[in-house]
């Protein structure tokens, strides 16, 4: 297991907010991540939540903008915040667009040759980072949930549905609910996975809900003033799939809220309490 390097650690709401780096075999280089360790971890292992951020974000985005640490400290939840993609791979086209390549790993394992050496965010999040967290922090990974925003909401829903025993709870803010049906997802899937749409279905939350629903209650919040709602997010397709398969889903639509972290801050408490409840049942 690779050693982690401490980038910084600060006391925060009685716990510790830290940033760390390590050498990743899944992502072919250095990866960074953030961890909030609540004060309850001094007495033993605590329930853990992994947060997946959206396009262009880093391991710092959620930690700085979401305002989650205060309540996480109160509820005794550890928060894990990985980066959104590998970095500095020198792949042709990696940095050409904001919605693909660097900062846009889409939480899947690439199969196309150009990207497969490094763009393996599913393996990184589900396996490699979990092992590192288990080795270095007081995390109870038998009580592990996952949530995220936009591209990260897509990642949270799909990784939960593919690994329901690993992630016992899941929620999302303005997720890309049907990436096969939107420009962001189509661009990522074609480049990372090739042209076979049967392969794409394995990474589409609406398709997964339809074919392999989980026993968990999914919580999804969506702002109705979100500029990406009609073109990229398609929560109605997730809702339709859940009704057809019996997946438990609470999809809340909010007038006036957009795609920003002001929206996420507003409903963060609901999501943390949702996970705390699900992870204690």
Overview of the structural elements:
The chain is α/β, with parallel strands linked by helices and 281 residues long. The protein has a single domain, classed as Rossmann fold, CATH 3.40.50.1820. Helices cover 36% and strands 24% of the residues. The chain is built from 11 helices and 9 strands. It has a 9-stranded mixed sheet, with helices on both faces. The two termini are 32 Å apart. The model has no long low-confidence stretch (mean pLDDT 97).
Radius of gyration: 17 Å
β-strand number: 9
Distance between the termini: 32 Å
The name CATH uses for the topology is Rossmann fold
CATH superfamily: Alpha/Beta hydrolase fold, catalytic domain
Low-confidence stretches: none
How would you state the average pLDDT, rounded?
A: 97
CATH class: Alpha Beta
Total number of helices: 11
Biggest sheet layout: 9 strands, mixed
Shape: globular
Number of domains: 1
Please provide the ordered H/E string of secondary-structure elements: EEEEHHEHHEHEHHHEHHEH
Task: Supply the helix-strand structural class.
Answer: alpha/beta
